[in-house]
């Protein structure tokens, strides 16, 4: 967005702000509430607002957010939200690219098992995590009941939103 990304974002028309936010999280309600919360004093102020919104999201809102994320281990494409979102997903899942074939196969199999059990994709903040670590987390989450798993999804979504908001509003670290 430029040198002073936060200022530029705060000055965007509402529709343009929502479009930028949808690269962070594909839930329209989240983008709407975030855009309506402007102006933000800092990127951290936006992150705090996001956390409050995510905490209040309905299961339907969370499902819409999940629709913008590729499966762990699958190559993100433009079918999973805006191009920036796909690029961020690829960057976040970079640890899977170095995984061996056995881990990649096990991730695909465990993703399918997770989706059969919970009815939605496995969402995890993958940044800085290896393929084996993500597989281990997935397998451990298969032991959750549905209400507990939705709480984990909510927490992981906020972690992802935080990383993406900081990129959007403060630029690369």
Structure description:
The chain is mainly α and 173 residues long. It has one domain: UraD-like, CATH 1.10.3330.10. It contains 10 helices and no strands. Helix 4 runs antiparallel to helix 10, helix 5 crosses helix 10 and helix 8 runs parallel beside helix 9. It is globular and about 50 Å long. The two termini are 14 Å apart. The model has no long low-confidence stretch (mean pLDDT 88).
Structural domain count: 1
Q: Please report the total strand number as a whole number.
A: 0
CATH level 3 topology: UraD-like
CATH homologous group name: Oxo-4-hydroxy-4-carboxy-5-ureidoimidazoline decarboxylase
Termini separation comes to 14 Å
Q: How is the main sheet built?
A: none
Percent of residues in helices comes to 55-70%
Averaged pLDDT = 88
Order of helices and strands: HHHHHHHHHH
Please tally the helical runs, counting DSSP H or I stretches of 4 or more residues: 10
- Tell me the name of the CATH class: Mainly Alpha
Q: Report the CATH architecture.
A: Orthogonal Bundle
* Radius of gyration from the alpha-carbon trace, in angstroms: 16 Å
Q: Beta fraction of the residues?
A: under 5%
Structural class label: mainly alpha
Poorly predicted ranges? none
Q: Tell me, what's the shape?
A: globular
